[in-house]
Every structure is written in C-alpha cells, then in structure tokens.
Amino acid sequence: MDILRSVRDRLRPGKGTVISLPYLWLLVFFFVPFLIVLKISFAEQELAIPPFTRLLQYDSDMGMLNISLNLSNYLFIFTDELYLDTYLSSLQVALFTTLMCLLIGYPIAYAIARANPAARNVLLMLVMLPFWTSFLLRVYAWMGLLQPTGIINNLLMSLGLISEPLMLFHNQFSLYLVMVYAYLPFMILPLYAHLVKMDVTLLEAANDLGARPLKAFWTITLPLSKNGIIAGSMMVFIPAVGEFVIPELVGGPNVLMIGKVLWNEFFDNNNWPMASAVATIMVVMLIVPIALFHRYETRQLEGENV
Amino acid sequence: MLDAVAERKTAAGAPVEETPYLQISGIVKKFGDNFAVDHVDLAIRKNEIFALLGSSGCGKSTLLRMLAGMERPTAGKVILDGQDITGLAPYDRPINMMFQSYALFPHMTVEQNIAFGLKQDRLLKKAIVERVLEMLDLVQLRKFATRKPYQLSGGQQQRVALARSLAKRPKLLLLDEPLGALDKKLRQQTQLELVNMLETVGVTCMMVTHDQEEAMTMASRIGIMSEGQLLQVGTPTEIYDYPNCRFTAEFIGETNLFAGQVVVDEPHYVEIESAELGERIHVDHGITGPKGMQVWASIRPEDVRLDRLEFTPAPNAARGVIEDIAYLGSYSIYHVRLPSGKIVKSVVPSSRWYEAGEEAPTWGESVNLRWRSDLPVVLTM
Fold first, then answer.
1. Do B99 and A204 touch (CB under 8 A)?
2. Is B105 an 8 Å CB contact of chain A?
3. So what's the ipTM on this one?
4. To bridge A73 with a disulfide, which of A277, B64, B222, B363 should be the other Cys (CB 3.0-4.6 Å)?
5. pLDDT digits (tens, 9 = 90+) for B296-305
C-alpha cells in the first residue's frame, strides 16, 4: 500500500512543482546573481563598460581560452587593516543591535503574547504599523528629530532646559538608536510567534512545584523560547551587518560599516571588482549564522520541540 | 458551667470525628457576578482518595485550582494539617498537582522533570537522585529516565506526571482529570494501577473528574458538584443507593424518576400517587414531609423486573410496550413505554431468558414492569 501511494505521489506533477518553486526562486534571484558577483570579484578594474576585465577570454591567435583569476582584490582586503576593521566594526554594530533588540523586544513580545486575544491583534498591529511608511522616510524623520537644529534640541532649548544643542546626531548613540528602532519588529514578531504558542499550564506546573515566577521564567519560558530567540536574532543580525542607509544617514562619517564601504567602492571609486570581493566575503561570513538559523527553523518545522 | 454546655453539645451532636486533615470551609469563588464555587464546605481525612464529580462547568476545577493556589477564593478558608493555607502562593503550599494535560516540561528529560520540584527545595544532589530513582521505580519508568516527554506514550507521560507530583511528598495531591487524556481501554487498566500507586505512597488525594466510573472505581468518597454547589458527599455505595436529590440520582448511574404526590404517609411506609406510572408507588420506609408534598421516586433500571405474566393492577407495577432494546451482550436495556407516555428503562440479564427457556421479548410486545417496595428512593428536590 505504502509503496503504491509513494509511487502515485511521485507521479503526481503538482507536488514537485510546488516544492521546486521556492528553490527556483532562490536559484534565479539569489544563487545566479551571487555567482555573477563572485565572478566580478575575480576581475580587474578597467575603464570600460562594464568597468571590469573579463574572466574568460578566447585568444584567437593562440586558439586558447584564457582564464584570468585576479586574487589581488581579496589579498588587498586581507592585508589592508581598514577593511578588517570595517568588517569587525560591522559585526560589532550588528551584534550590539541584535542584543539590544533582544533585551527590548523580549519583554514586548512576552507582554503581547500574554495579553488577552482581542488586545493582542491591536498590539501586533502597532508593532507592524511603521512598515506602512517607507523605511527611508522613517530614517529621515529620525534625522529631523536628532539633528543639532532638530525638533528635540529646539524644544529643549526653547524650554530653557539646555543652552547648547545636545550631541544626539552622527555618533554611536544615534546609530544604535535608529538601528534598534528599525530592526525591533523583526525581533518581536518571531519571538511573539514562539511565546504565544507556549502552554501557560507549564508555568502553573512550575509554580506548583515550588518555582517562584522569576525562577519559572528562567527555567521554563526562556529555554522554551530559545528557537524564537535564535530566529529573531538572525532576522536582525543578518541584515544589520550589511546595513547601509542608517550608518550613512545618521551614523555620520566616523562609523565604519561594510555597507558604506561597498557603496564607496561601487559608486565613488567605480571599482566593481573590489566591491564584489567585499560583498562576497560578507556573504561567506554570514553563511554560518544563516545555516544555523536554517537548521533551527527546520527542526522547529519538524515539530521537534527541543 | 461553660464546660457543661460544651459537653452537652457534643453529646447531642453528631458522633465526634477526628479533626479532618483538609478542611475547606465556606469557600466562594465569584467571576464577575457568577458564582463558580458557591459556599462549599468539605472535610477530607488523611490518606483518603476523594473525588469531586460533576459535569463541565460545575466549578470542580475552580475548586481544585483554589486548593493549588492558582485561583484566589473570594471568601472562605482552607486549612491543611492545621495550617491556614488560604492566602499562600502556589509555590509555598505543601500541595502538588497532576495536570490534565500533564504539563510535562518538553525541554527536560523524564528525570529532570521529576527532579524539578526537588531542586526548588534546594535538596542535596544525592538526595534528589535517590528520590528521583525511587519515583521512577514507583511508576516503573527507570528505563525511560533520559527520554524526553514527546518520546513517550500517553500512558507513560501520565506516569511521569504522577511521579513528578509525588516527588516532593506533598501533604495533598491534586489530580485534575487524571485519566482524561487516555483512551478508554487504557483508562480502565490505569485506574486501579493509579490507586495502587497512591496507596503505596500513602498520600491524601483530591481528584476532579466528570467520569463517574473513574470516581467510583478510584475514590473512597465522592462529592457531587453542580452549579458551584456541593450537593452530596458519601462513599460510592451511599451515593448510588441513597442519592439525596434528582441531580445525583440521574448523574450517578441511570435511573427512572416518577414525579408524584405523597398520598399516604405512615411511619413505616408511604404511598405516592404518580400520574406518570398510573399506579401508586409503595415505599417501605417513612419520609419526613407533609402529605400532598411533591416528590420523585427514583428506581434504578436494574431494580425494575420485566416479565410477561398475566397483569393484575397493583402498586409498584405497570404494563407497557417495548419500544427499544439495547443489547449489550451480558445484559439488555429495555425501553418500555407506559400508557402515560413515560419511558421506563429496565436492565435484564441475557441469561434470564435461556434459563427460563423463553424467547427474549421483542419490539412491540406488551410486558409487565414491577419492583420491590423497599427499592425506590424518595427524593424531595
């Protein structure tokens, strides 16, 4: 019977299409572009259109196919301290952003998950409300708030609370503030999804067995929301590493981030191969957390509540 | 002078009982304007297995949750082993609960689940390990100590839940529908196993169930609850044989209820005129109540004899037509319609007909129903 069924399932055309569709999507819109970037990263800058040398060249005189792999971009990245510092700085900013999102987002997600079902939808709506406005507009709004002549400083000055503008802009404070603001929903939503599924009687059982509420949280709620924490952290960490707009607009010139370097190489220096090499290394760096994230997601889907 | 008064009171009152281990007095829980639990008084002896029985929404679970400390009573008092625990938080009570869903911690192994409560008491590691092993042996799950709950069957999970709730040696064990999540076959087998384990440990138990069979098999005493009130408390036999109201009579087992008025009220017998039966019901014992009072006579289906002899009108007898037969193997339930339209149920052992060498009665046949006059129970509410 089982064999018959599996044969029939395999012959059914619809099933394969459904499964292959997301893979096709990834192939066309992620993997192929990545290969192109990888290819460019091994080229040399050239004054031409496109502005890089070809990887494969057919030499008709010799009747040979020349493959020129130029590793100098990578070599340069690994020897120039500026690039290394930028990578480390990007990782650091992403890590702190993730940690702060977790510390702020967890209580929010917990409160929403424990609110009564009618209030829950409203609260979730409020979390998602910022998405209704363009991301760029929201960053500009923060600029308007934080600038030395911005709304906050003007208000405080006119109230006579301060005599000189506070330095709220173009520094670490403004960078982290806007990063956390922008990425917080990506932390809250997966955390909420995990916390709302949790059986409240588990906490009652823990209390019943002598654990005070705080202890019950540490021993039951927190371990059981581990997958939510991982999912949320990855959703914040991965895009935060390559973030460009926020460090550029509110972080100021002193903030080193890989997104800015990419932009500079690509648009200011017109050095596509270098930009591609920078991007390739970033992707390779992120593959580890992405793989980790994927593993936990799969486990979660398989219903193994570990 | 005072002593003399006290003495007289004791002498006149009910027989002096030992002080109960668990004393619930005047407990009330209101949700808004509704009484979930309505002034319940209950006393439970040490090492007793007591069952609260009632349909869903009757307040039994709320009462249990108040004992566990998860709900705060609106009024009333709970005293356990001489200690007033009414205001104590769940984690400060010497009470443990086995949850209906078991509420096993999914990220912990069987061992870790059982040890959880002991760790909260900051016992020595060695003592914890010993107690966990003792509990694993009790529920015969030693082999499964390092499994996670999802790797166990329903019956095994239930035993882990039991072991976990017993590990701290609670003064009172609460069981919320202990077998509710098991399928029927497993439930019957587990009932007696569970009682044996509880008796081995020697723990005072309060269980909540909607399954009367479960309550009657497992509990030494049963309390019937309806609409937040405790209607009757007694041993399974007392409750079944002497229900004190129509709710209990119909809830525990099946019964035939005949509404009627008391027409003869003598010290040793009463007669009830029942339009539903068409005859008088003669009951062999007196009742307290005026003549003409509205009462109900309850007669269990197994007490109703069914035969096809010549019918002579008499008290406690009626003639009707068989409308339905539920054949259940060793016995059948006959549904007999009386001329008044009332359906009376009679349980007849299957052996009866072939022992008498008769054909079993069938649909549409007219039969006689009768019962002994000492069997009906007269209910006033």
1. yes
2. yes
3. 0.79
4. A277
5. 888 898 888 8
